[in-house]
Predict the structure of non-specific serine/threonine protein kinase.
Amino acid sequence: MGSFSGTCEIVEAGEELNVDQHSRGTYDKDRKLPMLKLGYKDSLEVDINHLFEAITLKASTKGLGLSQQAGTSPLRKSALKRPITVGAPHSPGFGNSEPVTLKQALRELCLSKASEMAAMKRLSKSTSSPGVSEAGRIKTLYHAVVVEASGSGPSLDKEEKSVVEISLVPEESKFSSSGKMPEQVKMPNMKSSSQSAHSSSQYAVTTLDNNTGNIPLQDETVSSPRKVGAHTPKVELLQKEKHTSAPSPSSSSTVRNILEMVENDPASTKLANKALVPKPMRKGRSQPVSSSSSIVGNRVGKISRNTLRSVKPVVRNKSSVKKKLKQNSSSAACSSSAYNNVNNDLDPRTTQVVCERCQCTLKNASKQVSFTSYSIGPNDEVSPSNEHSGASKPGITSNSCNKSKASMKMKKNSKSKEKGEFSQSSKSSQGEYSSSTSISDESNVSGSSCGNRPHMSKDVRWEAIRHVQMQNGVMGLRHFNLLKKLGCGDIGTVYLAELVGTNCLFAIKVMDNEFLARRKKMPRAQTEREILRMLDHPFLPTLYAQFTSDNLSCLVMEYCPGGDLHVLRQKQLGRSFPEPAARFYVAEVLLALEYLHMLGVVYRDLKPENILVREDGHIMLTDFDLSLRCTVSPTLLKSSSFNADPVKTSGPCTDSSCAQPFCIEPSCQVPCFSPRFLPAAARARKLKVDVASQVRSLPQLVAEPTDARSNSFVGTHEYLAPEIIKGEGHGAAVDWWTFGIFLYELLYGRTPFKGCNNEETLANVVLQSLKFPDSPLVSCQARDLIRGLLVKEPENRFGSEKGAAEIKQHPFFEGLNWALIRCTIPPELPEFCDIGFPSTGSQETKSKFLECKTTGEHLEFELF
Ligand SMILES: Nc1ncnc2c1ncn2[C@@H]1O[C@H](COP(=O)(O)OP(=O)(O)OP(=O)(O)O)[C@@H](O)[C@H]1O
């Protein structure tokens, strides 16, 4: 083996020989190598000559050995295993069978020595680096020797083998098993490029973690250069993450963190929800109104075009607001720039800004409903309904001593004129309070708080409102830019308003107390206020604040940019909703009614006009001034008495081994859920039915105000229940009647008993039997539900006994996930927000706000 001769260093040659002999047990022991003579105390020249002879002899021996033992000897085997694939180049003159001269031998000796010295130098440099372990240094040493030896040193058989086994092979195997990266695939930001092999890559990963706070890369992510490449974006992502999340030990927890972040960010969630909505659906639903709609259709089209040109989409605004507030909220509560703006704007020292837009006389020249010479003092008082703020700011109510006198003259127009952009709906609410029996329409709401609504806890508007209340103690109209009149009802006018200094939009219902008192409508306003203060439901309005002055009572509520369902229905093809859309809307309304009933509120004024569409496409049931407040005694109905659907309540388990079908003991459930020899789909279906039946058969809590009775003549003509018209006294069942009319109208585009006038309508309600038009085609389930709801005798009406729970189980709603309906994609989203003009901007646009003029202590503003 020619390589032997390469170990020209005497000591190492001896070592090498020993090793070699040991390792190759079958080596010819009789053969005496000249090298054994090394160590004799001859002169240098003699030694060199011996060496030279040895080299020559070794070279020739190698050739002999190979030829003799080819194919069978371990030596040959060993020679075949030489790590030639490693690519270590052989120095010329070494490893061949040609004899070398003394000069050549000396040159090679020098080269070898020089390369070794270089390697040692490099090693001493690298090992001085902190943090490298002893094992790492040893490996580094091996590596350096290998590199240097393979590059310029002699290629010893044994050395090369060792190189492969110790330095390269283990490194590869370690790399693949432990996932440490080879140097050539290190991440750009990894440290220790000078460090070698295994230890360096390990160190590099650690360094990456420490420096960037990133999550340590998992084995599989770096197990090969390819994978590393594939995971590079992940590393970048993690790097971006470091500012917001602490390092986490695994990538799965990173994903969780990201999801949590996304989940905890209301703006993101909303955007994500929007992104889920298929665009064609949205566009497809924005059908132009058919020509038959004449004026209505033209108006719709006109409004759409105009608003598309000029509106400021609320979604964008809100998102930006949220972003703005979120960005700043990290430092301290209420310390966002938006809040600072609020502070600046609301600071008493900067009343100029405040006074530009509020505390004004409302004038409506163009509309018949107007506020003329209406003025309020600069300290229009606040009595926040927010329990939180009220508690923390006891001074709020004490400021009421500064109340200044205000007057408001209101020309009241008919409601239908105000609303009648799309149709001449005669569905104005009737609010004759005659008498109530056994219940009080005026009962007090206790323990209500508009500041404590869990489902809105992340709402940025809460924070903005709270901040104003905390900063100022009182909240008034001066804190809002009134942007637009949204509509006018029986007891007040609703404005779109922006909280000054924020982009938070609200709907403010302004009621003139003097006017209400004169018209004996104060109880209605009071009822609405009290009910609003109780509510905390995704399909019911959130009352952010309420403040009153001598003459004005203001309710600050959530703004719904999508208009109402009456308008939306008229935009539909054929002026009726497709059944799935109708099902969606009535289902959400049903949940809202269920909630109200549980609170002891009979709504009594259900109609599409009172159902607003939120920016996310879900609904909001508004307008509670006609509602009836009563007591409710929750009742637990046992399963045996619950026979809403005999077919479906036949028991959770049809298995004969289940002795008690209604038993929910685990022993009885086992047969139901044990594997059966059914196809997977059929099994899943059966399981679903079984579970549904089981749930249905469970004892049920009914919290309906079934005993409520009122003799008030309230409601809207087309929606009035027969018992109200007949004056027999009514209870919660009136809501199920109106629910039936509502579903009918959504599906058929008109109400079932509408006559030529109100009297005829009322007569039809009482006397006429229910008929379904031939078109549009409506499912028998829907018609069945309507039929059940529009039973004239309230006691036989569907839902009268068990309320919403009973209705929810009707086949019309089969398959509907009630618990998650608020997360489902609505039939359509409001395409824009018809604010009309941006809330902030140039002086020109600002002038489009309700114009403010200072008149002495008071301010006047003209309305549009
Ligand atoms: N939160 C809101 N977001 C957007 N628009 C609203 C909001 N609340 C009310 N509106 C609009 O203002 C109009 C007037 O509402 P308001 O509740 O005062 O009157 P109403 O619905 O006619 O009821 P009523 O006459 O029985 O009091 C509504 O028709 C609606 O279009």
